[in-house]
Amino acid sequence: DIQLTQSPSFLSASVGDRVTITCRASQGISSSLAWYQQKPGKAPKLLIYTASTLQSGVPSRFSGSGSGTEFTLTISSLQPEDFATYYCQKLDSYPRTFGQGTKVEIK
Amino acid sequence: EVQLLESGGGLVQPGGSLRLSCAASGFSFSNYVMTWVRQPPGKGLEWVAVISASGGTTYYADSVKGRFTISRDNSNSLLYVQMNSLRVEDTAVYFCAKCGDYGGKPLDSWGQGTLVTVSS
């Protein structure tokens, strides 16, 4: 099965910072990747699918890029409401594995 | 508005069984692929199982294959997962999620989750 590895696992940043999270697949998955945001005690929320398509209603400060085995989620200017845990998920085949998560905390 | 409401969680002994339900509303349930995802306390997300819109095709994570069965009742907009031979490591919040019908079918709507605790 294809594994997804996110880096870093933990990130400390300030409001206004540009933040980049990486997701690496153990084999190529074309552009079949989604990103989710999860806040404590809440369900995950879809941010991006097909690696770079922004889900309706998601602020434009979020962007995604990549294909094959390396993908990035970028937050151009971190806002207070963006402090959360972010997960990538492969969408090409089953099992639809998630990355282990990246927790973004306030510096 | 899409709504997904899980129920059926609780405390069960190792080796026991439990059936979770997810009541869907706000969309044409029978047209969409549905998924179960779980999250152990303090840990990350784990994809568990998926079922096609008709219910005729299912896939499972290796960790639950042979023990869990996903099913659906399209007449009543209900999704289920029957969990047998439960283990301590199955302890988690279980989410049901709707797959979008676009772009690789990402999980575009989620329930609030139901907690399953497997302990003696």
Strand-helix topology:
The complex is a heterodimer of chains A (107) and B (120).
Chain A: E1 4-7, E2 10-13, E3 19-25, E4 33-38, E5 45-49, E6 53-54, E7 62-67, E8 70-75, E9 85-90, E10 102-106
Parallel strand pairs in A: 2-10
Antiparallel strand pairs in A: 1-3, 3-8, 4-5, 4-9, 5-6, 7-8, 9-10
Chain B: E1 3-7, E2 10-12, E3 18-25, E4 34-39, E5 46-51, E6 58-60, E7 68-73, E8 78-83, E9 92-99, E10 107-110, E11 114-118
Parallel strand pairs in B: 2-11
Antiparallel strand pairs in B: 1-3, 3-8, 4-5, 4-9, 5-6, 7-8, 9-10, 9-11
- Give the largest interface pair and sizes: A-B, 27 and 24 residues
Taken as a percent bin, the fraction of beta residues of chain A is over 45%
Q: Could you state the oligomeric state of the chains shown?
A: heterodimer
Q: Would you report the number of β strands of chain A?
A: 10
- Mean pLDDT of chain A, rounded to whole units? 97
Structural class of chain A: mainly beta
Mean pLDDT of chain B: 97
Describe this structure in words.
The complex is a heterodimer of chains A (107) and B (120). Chain A has strands at 4-7, 10-13, 19-25, 33-38, 45-49, 53-54, 62-67, 70-75, 85-90, 102-106. The mean pLDDT of chain A is 97. Helices cover 0% and strands 48% of the residues of chain A. Chain A starts with a strand and ends with a strand. Chain A has a 6-stranded mixed beta sheet with strand order 2-10-9-4-5-6, with no helix packed on it. In chain A, strands 1-3-8-7 form a 4-stranded antiparallel beta sheet, with no helix packed on it. Chain A is mostly beta strands and 107 residues long. Chain A is globular, with a radius of gyration of 13 Å. Chain B is built from no helices and 11 strands. Chain B has strands at residues 3-7, 10-12, 18-25, 34-39, 46-51, 58-60, 68-73, 78-83, 92-99, 107-110, 114-118. In chain B, strands 2, 4, 5, 6, 9, 10 and 11 form a 7-stranded mixed beta sheet that branches. A 4-stranded antiparallel beta sheet of chain B has the order 1-3-8-7, with no helix packed on it.
